Here is the input.
Amino acid sequence: MNEMTLSIQKQYTCDVLVVGGGPAGVTAAIAAAREGADVLLIEQGGFCGGMATRGLVGPFMTCYDAEGKEMIIRGLFREIVERMVERGFAIHPSEVMGGTAYTSWIKIGHDHVTPFEAEGLKLVLDEMLTEAGVRVLYHTDFLEPIVEGNIVKGGVFHSKSGIGASSAKVVIDATGDGDVAYRAGASYEMGNEELGLIQPATMFFRISGVDSAVTEADIQANLHNFYRKDGVNYRSFHWRVSEAKENGDWSLKRVSIGLFKMPKDDEWCVNTSRIMGVDSTDAESVTAAEIEGRRQADEIFRFLKKYVPGCEKATIKSTASHLGIRESRHILGEYRLRAEDLLAAKVPEDRILVAANSVDVHGRFGPTSNEYVPIEGSYYGVPYRSLLPKEIDGLLLAGRCVSADSTAAGAIRVMPPCMAMGQAAGIAAAMAAELALSPKKIDVRELQNRLTERDAYLGEVR
Here is the structure.
């Protein structure tokens, strides 16, 4: 660190440093700035949104309770959605039901998803960051935290300007992989260490020029053929995949096509490729996976054009500029959220969001498998303690790196809960900075009061 500090060419100061501008990081930055904090956000890409924009992941999964009656993930997530809806960039989740083209005809856990345009989201997030007064550095890579004892005091980063550094009263790790916490010395689990598995990655892509009425008619004629066998879901176009496999046109270890309709009638999001064993914290692993992901996307696209009615004249609108990552490090925090907490719909006293997203674990029993387990109540709560790394202070976690076991993380890793975590982390960081307190010492009830005043819903303790 001392050698690196000697070469620093630009020095910043801020109240709150947010590392990573994905769904959790961008809401953390906006929330902290709206509380009056001086916020610096660093993001390695050229825009915010992370998996929603660079990764082309879509739609936003459900933000409703398990019964599909009430929108329970609100706050900044709802504001972002409503801004996009106003400009034609999204369809409001209240208008989207499970079992439709917008959910790839999946019913369970897919009521009230939000189809959206990535380009529109980029624009809306830029506008909201600017309005809030967040200082943003794009094309900036995080290098190392500045640590004194066990307290994170800022970060060192690299851009075209050279080596930069910022001191900060509080730092938020929204890197997805928990890079700040890991490099500060926090304990962690990598994927599911008991099974030695990490959820597979996906190369999302989007297509246009689809005759959607024809495509949807093929599904409607074959809905009676949807079934599950030996842990494998045989859903959209599995009859077409079987035909292509027999003809030598399909080499992937997938049996169905994840095809999600977009706001524009002729455009669809394709979530089908599967790359096993990817370590997103290793550059060589990610590079090989990106190459394999594009190869799979090409094979899937050629299959769609040849075998799926309505896709004959389709074109690829875009492949993702970043591999879709489901899992990597789970930082060990003051509380490790467990799968049984979610499935039993527990809501702790220190919850900072409630959600009803089902446990969604890919590839545990091989590349064709999926586990999808709904909760047993209306919603569960995510505790503030899961945002606090156990051995490290001055640092908050937000997004899929929060403290949770691998199975629980399979539920809360999706984007609406991550945005809600970010909003909570941002407000907590601003409170800690204002009062010169450790994030572990703030008044959680005051944090909850501020969240509810800012449109968050925290449900009832049980």
Q: What stands out?
A: The radius of gyration is 21 Å.
